[in-house]
C-alpha cells in the first residue's frame, strides 16, 4: 500500500508539471482586424507577432516598450522593413530605432535606410526604414550573412526624457522584398531554413527515456510556394545562353578562317 501511495503522488506531481508545458505548446493567435493583419506586437523574441510580407501590422503601446514582429524571407530576396510611430500631441525629443535579427538572434546590418531617427518636440510621427542585404541560400558558419528563415523586427525608443515614459503611441510595420534573382545565387543551400521554435510540443516515443521530450514547433508562416531548394536560379538560364553563344562564335570563326580549300596550282602529292 505504501508503494502504491508513493507512485500515485509521483504521477500526480508529474501531471501538474506537464500541464503548464502542454498549455504553452499552443500559443493563441494574435488579434487581427478584418483584413487579417495583426493588431498587436510581441514583447520578446519568443512572443513576436508573425506577419507576412506585404502585410501591414499595427500595435498600440507605451513609450519605453519593446515591440517584436517576425516575418519569413527566402533566398534571393532583399527585404525592406518600414515602421511608423505616431507620437502623442505633446512630447519632448525622442529617438526611435528599428533592428532586424535572424533566426539565430544575430543582428543584421542595414544597407541603407533611416534605422535610427530622432523626433523633435511635438512631432506628430517618426518614420524608420531598414533595407537588409540580399538573403543568401548558403554561407560559411563564421559569416553573418542573412540566410533563409524567420527574421525578427524590434522597435523601441532609445532616447527620451523621463516625463515621456509610458505615454501611448501607435506603431505600424510592413515588410516588402525585391527579388534579386540569379545575381545573388551561390553554389549551396541550407539543409533547413533558420526557422526558430515559437513554442514547444511534447514528443512521444515508444521508449520511456524519450517520452515527453520537448521539441521546437516551427513558425506557421513561410514564403509563397514554400522555401526554395537553393539549387535553381535564373543564373542557369544565362549560363546556358552563354554556352550557346560561345559555340556559335566558334563555328563562325572556323568558317571564316578555314579558307576555300586546296589551291588549284598546288602540286599534287606523290
Question: Any overview of this molecule?
Answer:
This protein has two helices and twelve strands, in the order αββββββββββββα. With 270 residues, the chain is α+β, with helices and mostly antiparallel strands. The strands form three sheets. The protein has a five-stranded mixed β-sheet, with no helix packed on it. Strands 2-10-4-8-6 form a five-stranded antiparallel β-sheet, with no helix packed on it. A two-stranded antiparallel sheet has the order 11-12. It starts with a helix and ends in a 13-residue tail after the last helix. Mean pLDDT is 77; it is low at 1-29.
Task: Please sum up the structure shown.
This protein has helices at residues 2-24, 235-257; strands at 49-50, 57-62, 67-73, 77-86, 94-101, 110-112, 116-119, 125-132, 149-159, 168-179, 199-203, 213-217.
Q: Return the structural class.
A: alpha+beta
Distance between the termini: 118 Å
Order of helices and strands: HEEEEEEEEEEEEH
Which consecutive residue ranges, at least 5 long each, have pLDDT under 50?
1-29
**What radius of gyration results from the CA coordinates?**
29 Å
Q: How many DSSP H or I helices? A: 2
Strand proportion, as a percent range, falls in: 25-35%
What about the largest sheet? 5 strands, mixed
* Molecular shape: elongated
Q: Give the overall average pLDDT.
A: 77
Helix content class: 10-25%
What topology does this entry show?
Layout: H1 2-24, E1 49-50, E2 57-62, E3 67-73, E4 77-86, E5 94-101, E6 110-112, E7 116-119, E8 125-132, E9 149-159, E10 168-179, E11 199-203, E12 213-217, H2 235-257
Parallel strand pairs: 1-3
Antiparallel strand pairs: 2-10, 3-9, 4-8, 4-10, 5-7, 5-9, 6-8, 11-12
